[in-house]
Specification:
Layout (H helix, E strand, L loop, with lengths): L2 E13 L5 H13 L18 E8 L7 H5 L7 E7 L2 E4 L6 E14 L3
Parallel strand pairs: 2-3
Antiparallel strand pairs: 1-5, 2-5, 4-5
């Protein structure tokens, strides 16, 4: 099975209080997937259900992201996700909370199939 990269899309979003990294990550993925409307699948004899989406999330605390929860944002199954060091965390003046900024990149691949 050879997977061919067909789409690369980026997104960004924030959680403004509560240090909810998963929420910021989900919003970033939502932002990314709503920049595109993929209608080319028929041209290659596939459907949207055949896509394989690989998500990478960049946040300051990757271990705080619930990967399975982030995957629920995808409109189709067949996705994977990982969180890596990136994004921003901007503390409030008291140092008791912060704005969490998450970046997401989604790479969509299809099996070239014969």
């Amino acid at each position: 099975m050879a997977l061919i990269r067909c789409v690369t899309e980026m997104g960004m979003d924030v959680d403004v209080r509560g240090l909810d990294y998963t929420s910021a990550a989900k919003r970033a993925v939502f932002d990314a997937i709503h920049h595109s409307s993929l209608g080319f699948q028929r041209l290659i004899g596939k459907t949207a259900d055949d896509m394989q989406a690989k998500i990478t999330i960049g946040v300051r605390r990757p271990e705080a992201v619930d990967i399975e929860e982030v995957l629920t944002v995808l409109p189709h199954e067949g996705g994977s996700c990982k969180a890596v060091l990136g994004g921003l965390e901007v503390p409030n003046d008291e140092g008791t909370d912060a704005i969490v900024i998450a970046n997401a990149i989604i790479i969509v691949r299809y099996d070239e199939g014969k």
